[in-house]
């Protein structure tokens, strides 16, 4: 699908697109930020023990660990 350039549209076409977008948005189910943020916080805290960015990777399981060192003599 080719990209639309908004400057190439007539005022009527722009308004029609805006109305279509607003119709889509009004159908979305909305939730309170306070409730969603609490759920996200709980989700993160429950899984933080398994997160290698928080916990770290054991040396024996680290696939990026250097295999050896380079010695220049």
UniProtKB/TrEMBL annotation:
UniProt record, GO biological process: G protein-coupled receptor signaling pathway
Domain G protein gamma residues, every copy: 5-73
Localisation per UniProt entry: Cell membrane
PROSITE patterns tied to this protein: G_PROTEIN_GAMMA (PS50058)
InterPro entries: G-protein_gamma, G-protein_gamma-like_dom, GGL_sf
Molecular function via GO: G-protein beta-subunit binding
Keyword Transmembrane carried by entry: no
Coiled coil: 5-46
Coiled coil keyword on record: yes
Signal peptide start and end residues: none
GO cellular component, one term: heterotrimeric G-protein complex
Keywords: Cell membrane, Coiled coil, Lipoprotein, Membrane, Methylation, Prenylation, Transducer
Region annotated Disordered, chain positions: 49-73
Topology of the protein relative to the lipid bilayer: Lipid-anchor
General function of this protein: Guanine nucleotide-binding proteins (G proteins) are involved as a modulator or transducer in various transmembrane signaling systems. The beta and gamma chains are required for the GTPase activity, for replacement of GDP by GTP, and for G protein-effector interaction.
Family the entry assigns: Belongs to the G protein gamma family.
Subunit description: G proteins are composed of 3 units; alpha, beta and gamma.
Protein name in the entry: Guanine nucleotide-binding protein subunit gamma
Organism: Mesocricetus auratus
């Amino acid at each position: 699908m080719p990209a639309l350039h908004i400057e190439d549209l007539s005022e009527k076409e722009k308004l029609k697109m805006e109305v279509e977008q607003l119709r889509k948005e009004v159908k979305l189910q909305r939730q309170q930020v306070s409730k969603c943020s609490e759920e996200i916080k709980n989700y993160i805290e429950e899984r933080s023990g398994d997160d290698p960015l928080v916990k770290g990777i054991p040396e024996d399981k680290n696939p990026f660990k250097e295999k050896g060192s380079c010695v220049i003599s």
